[in-house]
Specification:
heterodimer, A: about 140 residues, mainly alpha, two-stranded antiparallel sheet, about 70% helix, about 5% strand, B: about 130 residues, alpha+beta, Glutaredoxin, 2 domains
Chain lengths: ~140, ~130
């Protein structure tokens, strides 16, 4: 399996920052479409790669050229795994809304918002850490 | 309703800020416990005058080729691979955040060069 090209670590952090703000804002005004919408946003980046994620692409094309070169590059697989976990949570939240359980839907979305906010502000990506734990246990070789 | 939702948002923000502070305190505590200039352990040096220490990870596919490249370009040096996930204390002592991270150590274990990433290693080798 070929090694994926390393990515600028600031891209996923920008994406997570937007995600946290959008989900918290959506919850504040009870705008439920934000949950399936951001499930699709995360799914695009996780399934197809960073250039297909709208906010990852926005970072790469608009913000990154205005910043200095990245100090650290990272393996894209942990943040993609983390995004997949986010898709699972937001997808489940969407189903909960559809089933009429708005409280469950928002609870799942707020978990994603909190973890995304934590990652964006501190760099602690819980989903990435889970990926690394799994990689160590299964000796995944890229 | 808006007030209740606003309260929940504020609680989430405080929780994130608190978790962030805890994480940063934990990280800075780890760094404070470390010597400023740690030495590469003698067990890795094995008496060699120059030792390349390549920190790898189970999911790093470029780490093996990096070690081979270093051995080819510097045949008189010892090249040793260390799985950072199996030696977290050693990786932490040298602030290894990603693989491959490569250290060049002299006979006494002093780190004289530090390269992060396969591209940095390639650039270093090409410049020698």
């Amino acid at each position: 399996m070929p090694t994926p090209a390393p990515i600028d670590a600031r891209g996923p952090r920008f994406n997570q920052g937007v995600l946290a703000v959008a989900l918290l804002g959506g919850f504040l005004v009870d705008w439920r479409p934000v949950v399936p919408l951001f499930a699709l946003v995360l799914l695009a980046g996780a399934a197809l790669g960073p250039k297909y994620g709208p906010f990852l692409a926005l970072y790469a094309k608009v913000i990154k050229p205005r910043l200095g070169p990245p100090k650290t590059m990272e393996d894209p697989r942990p943040p993609r795994f983390s995004a997949s976990v986010g898709v699972a949570f937001l997808g489940s939240g969407t189903l909960a809304f559809a089933a009429g359980h708005a409280g469950v839907g928002w609870a799942l979305a707020l978990v994603v918002a909190a973890l995304a906010g934590l990652s964006a502000t501190t760099g602690l990506c819980v989903g990435c850490e889970i990926y690394l734990l799994l990689a160590r246990r299964t000796s995944v070789v890229g | 309703m808006f007030l209740a939702r606003g309260t929940v948002v504020i609680v989430v923000l405080f929780a994130v800020a608190f978790a962030g502070r805890l994480y940063r305190a934990w990280r800075s505590g780890l760094q404070a416990d470390r010597p400023a200039h740690p030495l590469v352990p003698a067990s890795l040096l094995a008496g060699a005058a120059r030792t390349w220490v390549v920190f790898t990870s189970p999911y790093c596919a470029t780490c093996g080729p990096v070690a081979d490249r270093l051995q080819l370009s510097d045949p008189s040096a010892r090249v040793v691979k260390v799985d950072a996930t199996r030696e977290p204390h050693l990786a932490g002592a040298f602030s290894v955040r990603s693989a491959p991270t490569v250290l060049l150590a002299d006979a006494a274990g002093n780190v004289t060069a530090r390269l992060v990433g396969a591209e940095a290693v390639e650039a270093y080798v090409a410049a020698r």
